[in-house]
Design a protein that fits this description.
seven-stranded antiparallel β-sheet; 13 strands
């Protein structure tokens, strides 16, 4: 794997792996601290045309979390976004590209990885997060990790908290909720967190 600027998703730079000989495997690896959300883009040009002895999986491009195969791709694949939930603690992530020989793969036999980001699992209230709806309910807008579950709780005294909603962040990392009408007190506090 090496950095280059000719092919990238962000039009700046990406890492690429290619030019392997028959039976060779190459990987890119790092460690990170969870809980977090790991996101990246990857692209592949390697079509498997005959069966062969794979070294890691049946596909030339793999993604592992702590030695567990999580994703595997083959063929011609344009840039694809990926988001992976990383559990609490220290974890190793690895991208693996393997070559079975030119008689078993067609295409350019190249894999790219770009825009790798590890984001801590946090929830943010968006600017203008609260909107009063005509029926008396409040609309709340949050942003957080893609596809993760968020809990919103309410309190009138900052001591006793009661859950009012549990929902998933959408593919843009946003969540819009219609909360119950205001309680029979003047001040209501809200907080949100991501379910581990």
């Amino acid at each position: 794997w090496f950095a280059q600027t000719e092919v990238s998703h962000d039009h700046r730079h990406a890492v690429v792996c290619g030019g392997l000989n028959q039976g060779q495997t190459n990987w890119l690896e790092t460690t990170l601290q969870g809980p977090a959300t790991l996101s990246f883009w990857w692209k592949l040009d390697a079509i498997r045309v005959r069966s062969g002895p794979p070294l890691f999986s049946l596909y030339p491009l793999d993604f592992f979390l702590d030695d567990e195969l999580r994703l595997a791709r083959q063929g011609e694949m344009d840039w694809e976004p990926v988001s992976v939930a990383i559990p609490p603690g220290e974890h190793t992530v690895r991208w693996v590209f393997q070559q079975w020989g030119r008689d078993r793969l067609s295409g350019a036999q190249v894999a790219w990885v770009d825009e790798v980001q590890a984001s801590p699992v946090t929830v943010w209230f968006l600017p203008g997060a609260f909107t009063l709806l005509p029926d008396g309910r409040r609309q709340l807008r949050l942003t957080g990790p893609l596809g993760r579950l968020a809990v919103v709780a309410a309190s009138t005294n900052l001591v006793d908290w009661a859950p009012v909603s549990t929902n998933l962040f959408n593919s843009d990392g946003n969540l819009t909720l219609a909360l119950p009408a205001e309680l029979p007190v003047r001040t209501v506090f809200y907080r949100a967190w991501v379910v581990p």
